[in-house]
UniProtKB/TrEMBL annotation:
Residues 9-140 form the Creatinase N-terminal domain. Pfam families: Creatinase_N, Creatinase_N_2, Peptidase_M24, Peptidase_M24_C. GO terms for molecular function: metal ion binding; metalloaminopeptidase activity. Belongs to the peptidase M24B family. It comes from Aurantiacibacter atlanticus. GO terms for cellular component: cytoplasm. This is X-Pro aminopeptidase. Residues 311-532 form the Peptidase M24 domain. Keywords: Aminopeptidase, Hydrolase, Metal-binding, Protease. Residues 542-601 form the Peptidase M24 C-terminal domain.
Length: 601
């Protein structure tokens, strides 16, 4: 019997927990690869609670339940998750472990799926619960799967080859580099479970996760450069086997865990941040010597080859023309009051599809009108869809997956016909000033993202306001739209990536914003490439950013009087480049709009 309400699903889960003699269960957004975005079969939190964000967790006890999300989802979780069923908790102020310790009865047994959590998470949770007299229990199977009657099956889409010409390096070359690392570290093998790392190492892509071109699989690379690729056999085409050659052995995905017996007595590297508890547990059980090491693909994947950089520029130019066609269309249609969030997102998708090279979106388009734009990671639905009202702010954050690059752009648009209010222009201009400050900064090699974050916030801070998300994330090459290890964010609490030095060849977003709850949201996002810089009289090596995203920024929202001459020069130079790159791709009507949008301030 299918359960249509989230209350019925919660009740069914509690009955299943009681059957297993468990007092609680932790439900993350995760899959066996700790992916940020997961396939439909792994959307357990969404099925249970209705929450549609990309980060969060629920804890279900016999008589209590709570949702844990960070500041990006404070508004969204209240819109999507029934407050009569779940308490709302804010991370990092509220801790899952502390809440369970304080809420669950003494002696409680709290279950978790060892294929959905890291070892560090499980160890920390176990220690905290032990102090409270409770017990963390690793389960053999997920109790949600037992009650989710119409749970989808994992994708059966075939994997496909990412051409070496686009990658800039062959799989054999990448595996050879990993083999050299294994030998230098006196290791026998490395287990790679992050889907984008598997895809990058093998120069393979897939369609198993919405918006991220990866194939559900695991990889074990040996110290001789050969590898065992664990993937459902029906997903592997003759083209894929031909491209990989004999050095990559293709084995069934469901044989992955049992194959650990072959690593008994060997020194095996596993990344504790990107591999689940179960992998460590099974390797320990067969007698392997497990060493915690960062996935060897993470850093080289982030440093784009010359071919990948060239591909990104081509993808950005193509995508920029599509987004510009959309913005031109919006100028005419938006003020009529006939466009809503869903129809706007569909129109933007259509312009991208008309390029003939779009493989997928790189994430669900954030199409936020008015108050919905104040939710940083808003996801439009039939239930929440608002019209783009005349004289309001519209925020659209979107991107495309092309075989030569992954795009991610945010533009904030004033829907006329009247001029925007002074407060909106003030906030937009402060966001723009922060964007420019980060874009133009030069910095010495070895500088981390956390050292640069304040540049983008300074003008907002001067007005006593801020934004509740990082300023920049890494971006893949026809891979994840969010890619580590680099990021630009406040460095509190050892946030992942904030201590990573920025290196020439890395791609990041530059996306400061401002959000007024219940009214509007503002964000300006371009992707930027880290490049070497030469400065007269410089001492040491220096780096800077080069903007890859080329789309006009809405000039009607800018208060020119707030800008310095240098900031005006940036605007004029950037928009001259936008016009140069996009003009040859546009028809006469859109070109006329582009010319006006790119006029000097």
């Amino acid at each position: 019997m299918l359960m249509q309400t989230h209350e019925a699903r919660l009740s069914a889960l509690r009955e299943e927990l009681a059957r297993r003699k468990l007092d609680g269960f932790v439900v993350p957004i995760s899959d066996e690869h700790l992916s940020e975005y997961v396939g439909a079969y792994a959307q357990r939190l969404a099925w249970l609670t209705g929450f549609g964000g990309s980060a969060g967790a629920a804890v279900v006890l016999k008589d209590n339940a709570a949702m844990f999300v960070d500041g990006r989802y404070t508004i969204q979780v209240r819109d999507q998750v029934d407050g009569k069923l779940y308490d709302y908790k804010s991370v990092p102020a509220d801790s899952i472990a502390d809440w369970i310790a304080e809420t669950a009865p003494e002696g409680a047994k709290i279950g978790f799926d060892p294929w959905l959590h890291t070892r560090d998470w499980a160890n920390a949770m176990d220690a905290r619960l032990d102090k409270a007299g409770a017990q963390l229990v690793a389960l053999d199977s997920n109790p949600i799967d037992a009650v989710w009657a119409d749970q989808p099956e994992p994708s059966t889409a075939p994997a496909f080859v990412q051409d070496d010409a686009l990658a800039g390096r062959s799989s054999a070359d990448k595996r050879g580099e990993i083999a050299d690392w294994l030998k230098a570290e006196k290791l026998d093998a490395v287990v790679v479970s992050a889907l984008d790392s598997v895809a990058w190492i093998l120069n393979i892509r897939g369609a198993d996760v919405d918006h991220t071109p990866v194939a559900l699989s695991y990889l074990v690379v040996q110290e001789d450069g050969t590898a065992d690729w664990f993937i459902a056999p029906e997903k592997v085409t003759d083209e894929v086997t031909g491209a990989l050659g004999n050095a990559v052995r293709i084995r069934p995905r469901d044989a992955f865990s049992d194959a650990f017996a072959e690593l008994a007595g060997k020194r095996v590297a596993v990344d504790p941040e990107r591999s689940v508890y179960a992998i460590f547990d099974r390797l320990d059980a067969v007698g392997a010597a497990v060493l915690a090491e960062t996935d060897p693909a993470v850093l080289p994947k982030a440093i784009k080859t010359a071919a990948e950089q060239e591909g990104h520029r081509a993808a950005q130019a193509r995508d920029g023309a599509a987004v510009s066609r959309f913005l031109h269309w919006l100028v005419g249609e938006g003020p009529k009051g006939t466009v809503d969030e869903l129809s706007a997102a569909a129109k933007l998708y259509g312009f991208r599809e008309e390029t003939g090279q779009l493989v997928d979106l790189s994430f669900d388009t954030i199409s936020g009108a008015g108050s919905n734009g104040a939710q940083c990671h808003y996801r439009v639905s039939e239930e929440t869809c608002l019209p783009l009202a005349p004289n309001s702010v519209y925020l659209v954050d979107s991107g495309g997956q092309y075989k030569d690059g992954t795009t991610d752009i945010t533009r904030t648009v004033w829907i006329g016909p009247d001029a925007p209010p002074a407060e909106v222009k003030d906030r937009f201009t402060r966001v723009l000033q922060g964007h420019i400050a980060l874009d133009t900064q030069i910095f010495p090699t070895g500088t981390s993202g956390s050292a640069l974050d304040v540049l983008a916030r300074q003008y907002l801070w001067q007005a006593g306001v801020d934004y509740p998300h990082g300023t920049g994330h890494g971006v893949g090459s026809f891979l994840g739209v969010h890619e580590g290890p680099q990021r630009i964010a406040k460095g509190r609490g050892g946030q992942a990536g904030t201590d990573q030095a920025l290196i020439a060849g890395m791609i990041l977003s530059n996306e400061p914003g401002y959000y007024k709850a219940g009214e509007y949201g503002i964000r300006i996002e371009n992707l930027v490439l880290v490049e070497e810089r030469t400065i007269d009289g410089m001492e040491g090596d220096w780096l800077g950013f080069s903007a890859l995203t080329l789309v006009p920024i809405d000039r009607t929202l800018v208060d020119k009087d707030m800008l310095s001459p240098e900031q005006i020069d940036w605007w004029n130079t950037y928009h001259a480049k936008v016009r140069e790159v996009l003009a040859p791709q546009l028809d006469d009507d859109t070109l006329a709009w582009l010319e006006a949008a790119c006029q000097p301030l």
